[in-house]
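Q: Here's a chain of 307 amino acids. Please give me its 3D structure as tokens.
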Amino acid sequence: MKRLTKLLLMGTLVLGACGQNDSPHEEQLKVYTTVFPFKSMTEQIGGSHVDVKSIYPNGTDIHTFEPTQQDTLNIAKGDLFIYSSDELDPVAAKMNKAVNGSNTLAVAANLAEKQLLEHHHDHDEHEHEEVETAHDPHVWLDPVMNKAFAEEIKNRLIKLDPDNKADYNQNYQKLVKDISDIDAQLKKITQHPRRDTIYISHESIGYLANRYHFTEKGVSGMNNEEPSQQEIVTMINDINELKIPYILYEQNIPSKITDVIKAKTNTEALKFHNMSVLTDEDAKNKDVTYQSLMKENITALDQALNH
């Protein structure tokens, strides 16, 4: 009798365990993203209901990134792929097309044309050179835009998983408050700056410069194009003339040319995280978020503008 009772009890436990594993409500949504802010915002809004990964390896230069076939397969099998837009991110657009866009979210697709910054890239140094116009893709550094992106992410998670709507809404409200605080801090440090120009390793902070009324000067271009010798000389002369004390270095951008300019101008390096990807060191910190990195960026921008 004891043996029978024991077997029945074991069977009940096994069936109970199977029932828990088979419940669709216990399964996390599998989400892939491009840049880190999209990953961070999705993790914060989704909480325990999502498993989020970026397609970018740590430290990679996203301007030269080429996805593997496995990356596309992962996205096809996942519940959601989050990126900026087809126009701003051609690589992600190809991946979106490959999976027929059935489980993708382009958070910046609804931005108005006037919200996007144009970038003019010169193909050569000759007079009357051909000029290619494109939009600056670094929208994820703009806090105001990120509030709109967060809402897009929240709405899609609710559509995919309506049972956890209350959690998504609550987490979203907390995130938006944090982003509003970042916006307020940036307004404060740029209200009456000591200087109005920031030099940085590549043109990544155009949206911040536009939003908070300072001037960005990138050593390399928007897509990390190297400057000409004449451009380097001009930049060195301008920095010396304006007595610029700092140059911002980014976590994933080659710095050889920036090092040359720094040496010729006696400027000091400041770290700025463009947040396109994490570094291996960043990834060791399990609590790293868009907010924590932006807090460090605000300190660097404050130093460059006001000290």
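Q: Can you summarize the key feature?
A: The chain is about 50% helix and 15% strand.
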